[in-house]
Design brief:
There is one protein chain. The chain has about 500 residues and is α/β, with parallel strands linked by helices. The chain has 17 helices and 16 strands. An eight-stranded mixed sheet has the order 8-12-11-13-14-10-15-16, sandwiched between helices.
């Protein structure tokens, strides 16, 4: 009736009322019912995805990893003292992700991609989920290109290929981080991007690593991701996954990437702490039943992609700490079974000054000589066997038995080989230099030189090679086999260096 008498007035009132009625937004809100060190339990969600990112009313983020009908176990990615019982928790509708791209190079960040170096804000439009499936078998290519570390004991006896997963294992304070950092520093001449992931480390130790990278000129092409020992265990747990996603971005672009996890022992302990707080059933050494899976799904992401997918590679150097040289402990054996070999650092070698303290007998690379240049393989191919025989012979000689001249000569040569494998930190050697000094030791050119002067002989050979070995360097770098002529020329360089630069054999 009213509409017939005053249609214009009715339309006006209808428009006013429609604007006055607020739109109802439906939000899934839950509340915190308990909170402890690193985890919180919330109730109230009607729908939630696994590993979904949640936001507490205080602004702290959390990761939903333990779902049940009654409640949700949330790993807090921040300070739990900012969360109280009764606080509201809201869904973000996405799983945890991090920024990726060129803007991260040269920066120090946390596992959520936030800057820690007080530099300019990180501006990037690309993000990737921290949990990603590993490349399928058909997407992978053989590992056949070397990743030179510049360390003789590693490149000669335990070679690393691009796309390989090589474990660095040893007791505390045996030089594990030093080898990994040297591997990063040795990539200056190439186009390898590096990611250093510090998990549970002291802030002072991380600062020393950053300073070494800065002084070595490698920080500009390195992403340093830090979840220190003072950070929440949730941040330590997601740190290696975040770092791997940042590295995978470059691998998918066709670039070669080197990632260092320092170290996965602390990562396993952080996950054990979270699992116990979430009341998951403990297993061996109180670790949860999926402790193997959290590392396997991480390290399986390291690979060499086939050419149709860009041909990029992701080389992983996970570090693990042992106690009392026990490499058969739970976590070390898990990681040894996942990786493609291990570099074992012996505390006994460290104590006697044999640095780097690489135990060649206990170390292994399951890729082996496939990633070595042919010239390198021809010189270092028998090094492991010779060195193992020397160590066995030296152990037998300690009993004081009489030795013939041949045995005594083998011992003398073995001691020279051991001396030539010593190398100062950040003293990187290219392939040609390594071949020259190893050839000098294995061919007996150093037999008459006192053991305490082997380092002088090495310096003389490197200097002479730098002055007159350009053709040999090009031949070796080209991937050609070291023929008789090249071998003779290299031995001539060695003899000249020892006779002239060293002042003759003594």
């Amino acid at each position: 009736m009213l509409q017939e008498l005053a249609p214009d007035l009715f339309d006006l009132m209808d428009g006013i009322l429609s604007e006055a009625i607020p739109e109802v937004a439906i939000a899934d809100i839950a509340h915190v019912v308990s909170v402890s060190n690193g985890v919180a339990r919330v109730v109230g969600f009607s729908d939630l995805g696994a590993n979904e990112l949640l936001r507490f009313s205080s602004g702290v983020f959390g990761l939903a990893i333990s779902l049940s009908i009654q409640s949700v176990g949330v790993v807090v990615l921040g300070e739990t003292d900012r969360i109280s019982v009764g606080d509201r928790v809201s869904r973000t509708g996405r799983v945890a992700d991090v920024p990726v791209g060129e803007a991260l190079l040269g920066r120090v960040i946390d596992p959520l991609g936030r800057a820690l170096d007080d530099g300019r804000p990180i501006r990037t439009s690309e993000r990737m989920q921290i949990e990603r499936p590993a490349p399928s078998i058909m997407d992978r290519a053989p590992v056949n290109q070397p990743l030179q570390t510049g360390i003789k004991a590693v490149d000669a006896a335990v070679p690393i290929g691009r796309g390989q997963r090589e474990l660095i294992v040893g007791d505390r304070q045996t030089g594990k981080t030093a080898i990994a950092v040297d591997a990063i520093l040795n990539q200056l001449a190439g186009d390898v991007v590096a990611v250093y992931c510090a998990i549970g480390q002291r802030a002072s130790a991380v600062a020393r690593v950053i300073e070494k990278l800065r002084q070595g000129g490698a920080l500009e092409r390195t992403i340093v991701l830090v979840a220190s020992g003072e950070d929440a265990p949730g941040l330590q747990y997601i740190a290696p996954y975040s770092a791997t996603s940042m590295a995978e971005h470059f691998m998918r672009k066709g670039r070669d990437v080197l990632i260092v996890y320092d170290d996965l022992t602390r990562h396993a302990r952080a996950y054990r702490e979270l699992s116990l707080l979430l009341r998951r059933p403990p297993g061996r050494e109180a670790y949860p039943g999926d402790i193997f899976y959290i590392h396997s799904r991480l390290l399986e992401r390291a690979t060499h992609l086939r050419d149709s997918l860009g041909g990029g590679s992701l080389t992983a150097l996970p570090i693990i700490e042992t106690q009392a040289q026990n490499i058969s402990a739970f976590i070390p054996t898990n990681l040894i079974s996942i990786t493609d070999g291990q570099i074992y650092l012996s505390p006994k070698l460290f104590e006697i000054g044999q640095l780097p303290a690489v135990d060649i007998g206990e170390s292994v690379s399951r890729v082996g000589g496939k990633v070595q240049l042919p010239a390198f393989r021809s010189v270092a191919g028998d090094l492991r066997l010779f060195y193992s025989q020397f160590e066995e012979l030296e152990s037998f000689a300690r009993f004081g038995t009489q030795m013939d001249d041949e045995t005594r000569a083998k011992l003398d040569r073995g001691r020279r080989v051991r001396a030539i494998l010593r190398q100062a930190e950040q003293d990187h050697m290219d392939v040609a230099e390594q071949i020259a000094v190893l050839l000098a030791a294995t061919e007996g050119r150093l037999d008459d030189i006192p053991e305490d002067r082997v380092s002088d002989a090495e310096a003389a050979i490197r200097q002479r090679l730098a002055e007159s070995g350009d053709d040999l360097r090009r031949t070796i770098a080209s991937g050609k086999t070291l023929g008789e002529d090249e071998r003779a020329a290299l031995l001539d360089v060695i003899d000249t260096a020892l006779a002239n630069d060293l002042g003759g054999k003594e």
